[in-house]
Amino acid sequence: MTEREFFSLQTRPEGRLRVERDASAHPSEARPTTPLIEARRLTKHFPIQPSLLARLLAGQRDRLVRAVDEVDLAIWSGETVGLVGESGCGKTTLGRMLTLLHRPTSGEIYFQGRPLVGHRVLTTDETGQVSRAPYYRLTQIVFQNPYSSLNPRKTVRQILTAPLRARGVKRPADIEAEVRFLMDRVGLNPSHIDRYPHQFSGGQRQRIGIARALAMRPLFVVADEPVSSLDVSIQAQVINLLEELQAEYKLTYLFIAHDLSVIHHISDRVAVMYLGHIVEEGATDELFAAPRHPYTQALLAAVPVVEKAARRSRILLQGGVPSPIDPPSGCRFHPRCFVKKGQICEQEKPPFFQVNGQRVACWLYDDHPHAATAPSVDAVSLEPAKGRQ
Amino acid sequence: MARPILELRNLTTVFPTRRGEVRAVDAVNLALYPGQILGLVGESGCGKSTVLLSILGLIARPGRITGEVLLDGRDLTKLSNRELRRLRGKEIAMIFQDPLSTLNPAFPVGEQIRESLRLHNMLPGPWLWPFDAGRRQREKERVLQVMEEVGIPAPEARYRAYPHQFSGGMQQRALIAIGLACNPRILLADEPTTALDVTIQAQIIALMKRINQEHGAAIILVTHDLGLAAEFCDHIAVMYAGRIVEIGSVDQVIENPQHPYTQGLLRCIPNLKERRPLQPIPGSVPDLADLPLGCAFAPRCPDFQPVCAEGFFRLQPVIENGRKKVHRSGEVHMARCLRLTGYRMPEDD
Predict the structure, then answer these.
(1) Is the pLDDT score of A20 beyond 50?
(2) Using H for helix, E for strand and C for coil, what is the string for chain B?
(3) Quick one: closest CA in A to B225, which residue?
(4) What is the pLDDT of residues A352-388, one digit of tens each?
(5) What is the ipTM of this complex?
(6) Does the beta-carbon distance from B278 to A201 stay under 8 Å?
(7) Is A82 on the interface with B (CB under 8 A)?
């Protein structure tokens, strides 16, 4: 385990933030322990408000869709964090919150150790200048569906010009040059600059989406299932492009996907989500070699693989993902769990246990020989564990 | 080997367009044997779904089907619509890709499953047919039995539920139940799990495998997921631009791919075991209205030789252990690549 990964799992005492802020006065100091972006107990609840009639006649009340519930995630500069889970588990919502496309219901986002204030954040550039920058300048998103995320009435030139203007490129000649450069960089023919999205294939449209995100010169890019709607041969092209761009522009990715083989290929670390919670997190190779959480185990076993030797016995989960409106009590996975420990799974939310390099939220590891209770990134989830001891 | 229950001979499906005729399916020869699971693999637009639709005669005008689709020696392309309707759902059933748009939102799921039983008069009464009150009850019992079989919990309660009350996996199960209701001999599955999560996909695939083993239904699975095809199927046919470019048993095609397209596909799938750079196939799928002469894959092919662009050529048997076997389609590993003949245009036999 590298030092960086080690620190990702360690407690950060509350006072550290202030220390960091002081340290920011000396930007020359390397701070490998500060994540580029950090989510602390990030929560998003969507209210369902029934109509007045439904309220009066059927007696319906407001309900909450608990899309993301108290999620902690730290992403260091230059790495790719893969976020996997089934549909409806909140991975897209988390990605959108990290780019502020959704306002979190509660919880905080820290950028380079500094909290977000409104839509702005303090950043330090290479020269050590501290400035307040709009958050959208620093984080961008590549959307899942290249057919619906590009305006059909705008040409590539118009699509790519908007972020350039927002970044402050003013002269038309500069804009044109940069649009052509971006198109060339993502593998599009710059002579197609005045074409409309429908004149491109799915893979090419996704390249436009990537160019649009790059135009802002972001530090952090959320790639929200960028390849899931593409054919395999095109998928490989786009993955390779994303990897090249990361190396060239030192980008940091949160790569959201439901395809585990893609995640395995591209990520340095992986976080597995289930019904709004992160259930397991760890370095990619370790997590794929020895998944700890029963959900991760089932997820990995369900992936069809080409190699004969790699085929494993299936773990067939029963039923589907429960609704996030009234999620199960305790561990949210317990109704489908095949190694349920007992009452405790149904009653108490498991805290994170540290098993080797991984962070696992499962009661199985409560008295695991290698397990230590993961330091309290979220204090609340730790409380029940204290009560039990 | 037993006789094939379904045989496609030179099946060609043509759609006239403004830019000329598009051969969505071009001279496809396939044989499906009883109890076999055949995978049809390829990227979108390669004609794999059109093959299934052509088998059932579901190609709308002005699309045309030529060639033969033989079911027990009967040519389905010659049948009238009325005769075809007697076969669809009873002998050959189809599971479509998108359950939400396939199920009718206005009718309860149970009734939709019952529909095929009713139309095929699967459970006839003694003679009172139009006034047979017990028939509905018998059909309902069969529907509940099928729903139970495909793993829909509490079928009694779910019988009257509408499609929107089902989750994606449950909707897919309901579609499979419709397909299974009449105990067909052949099941055509068009990307049945593409819209589903992997854990649900594993459930559906296990279910289809069980149906194959318990009822002996032969299955044609259309998928773009090579991993899924490799795990689930006995035989695989890889399609590219409307043609089968490689066919053989799973082991032959996956372990020893001969066509450069199959090799390319296998190389660009991320591997769960080791991380190696992906080698994408350069370029993209050609326009079907404007196919190059000769091998359709030639413009993207790493082993391209000028002779590849010279004319149409057949699937060539792969020479294994130094000898060429007598072949019948579906039994022997074959690939449509001139590399196998040492870049000599084969003489038509």
Answers:
(1) no
(2) CCCCCEEEEEEEEEEEECCEEEEEEEEEEEEECCCCEEEEECCCCCCHHHHHHHHCCCCCCCCEEEEEEEECCEEHHHCCHHHHHHHECCCEEEECCCHHHHCCCCCCHHHHHHHHHHHCCCCCCCCCHHHCHHHHHHHHHHHHHHHHHCCCCCHHHHCCCCHHHCCHHHHHHHHHHHHHCCCCCEEEEECCCCCCCHHHHHHHHHHHHHHHHHHCCEEEEEECCHHHHHHHCCEEEEEECCEEEEEEEHHHHHHCCCCHHHHHHHHCCCCCCCCCCCCCCCCCCCCHHHCCCCCCCHHHCCCCCHHHHCCCCCCEECCECCECCCCCCCCCCEECCHHHHCCCCCCCC
(3) A232
(4) 888 888 899 998 888 766 555 554 443 333 333 333 3
(5) 0.78
(6) no
(7) no
